[in-house]
Amino acid sequence: MAEMDTSGGGGHKKGPGVKKGKKQSTRVDLTPMVDLGFLLITFFIFTTTMSSPTAMKLFMPKDADKPEEQNKAKESGALTILLGKDNSVFYYEGILDPAGANFKASNFKEIRDVIINKKKSTPADDFVIVIKPNEECKYKNVIDIMDEMPINAVKRYALVDISEGENQLVKATEASNSLP
Amino acid sequence: MARPKIPRKSTAVDMTAMCDVAFLLLSFFILTTKFKPSEAIEVTTPSSVASKVAPEKDVLLVTITKSGKVYLGMDNADRRRDVLNTLNVTKQLGLSDADLESIAKLEFFGVPVGNLKQQALMPKEQQTDRVLPGIPIDTTNNQMIDWMRAAATVYAGQPMNLLVKGDNDASFPSFKNVMTSFKKNELFKFQMVTNPESVPQGTALWNANLAGIKPEE
């Protein structure tokens, strides 16, 4: 094992009166060292393979200036998701009711069921999701909601600017929700 | 007849060889690991289920920090100089060749175009998101449009990976203004850098992955 030869090369005997010191083993138990070594190896193996960042692809449509050139989404198959501040999510189906009757609040956990239900209830060709973040929402929320699209196999979705009326509705709802 | 005594052998195993192998592997992994260089711009990226690894070549990286400052980085030094050259001409910055050379050494740009020379003179440790003001991207003064126009000219016909790396807490308008700068220059394809995340169970994507359907590119 890993020890040094301390016998002194088969050397000379000591004198008759000199007592032989008891030779202590110089062997070191290497097991903990091996343990530590493999622990570090596993650590490095895991950290090297896990840290590569991934990338989400996004294709933007060309901005059409004239309204008649824009892709018209069939109203019945549209689901509009609005994002506000503090991770709040709102949605409505079809066209927004002027009184805001079909304007509903949701959150990032429940929105998946909303998407799945809407997807089941509409023909695949008409189904489109419109994402409208307002200026107070965070980048993370936008990525999260766009991430829901591949998760739920939504083929058609668009990132659209929020309209003034919708933004006011979002803010009003947020304000009323924050009241005790 | 008395049996000859069989000497009892020790059951201790010689660990030296195993120890050698362990430390050889250990030193190999330590040396080959690329540690994340301490980043000048601190960004915590959001996570997504995207499984494609972010490209590392021909990258044009737009970083958006927590406070909404925007920085532009390029991996290829030659392209960096070309983009600067184009920008120098289009924005009439009046930079000399020596200035351009020193500015092109910067790994990322984070100042209004008029101040590029000052950024090049700054010591490298100071070039962080705390000190640099970022490229202006307001709706009134969106200089990212100029940068992207120069980049689009330089990279024309060549592969270009447009990456956006945003912080979790970056507000949406800064991301929107960056997108506007892409759109204005007809760059419709870009990728967002995210951390990998596991697919939630029971969803459509989860089922597709189980069935072995490869996600569309």
TrEMBL record, chain A:
Region listing for Disordered, in residue ranges: 1-24
GO BP, sorted A to Z: protein transport
Keyword ATP-binding carried by entry: no
Location of the protein in the cell: Cell membrane
Protein topology in the membrane: Single-pass membrane protein; Single-pass type II membrane protein
Keyword Cytoplasm annotated: no
Name by which UniProt lists this protein: Biopolymer transporter ExbD
Organism expressing this protein natively: Filimonas effusa
UniProtKB/TrEMBL annotation, chain B:
Primary site of residence: membrane
GO biological process: protein transport
Localization (cell): Cell membrane
Membrane topology of the entry: Single-pass membrane protein; Single-pass type II membrane protein
Domain of life assignment: Bacteria
Pfam short name (any one): ExbD
Protein's UniProt keywords contain Transmembrane helix: yes
Family matches, as InterPro entries: ExbD
GO cellular component: plasma membrane
Keywords for the protein's UniProt record, in alphabetical order: Cell membrane, Membrane, Protein transport, Transmembrane, Transmembrane helix, Transport
A GO term for molecular function: transmembrane transporter activity
Family: Belongs to the ExbD/TolR family.
Protein name, per record: Biopolymer transporter ExbD
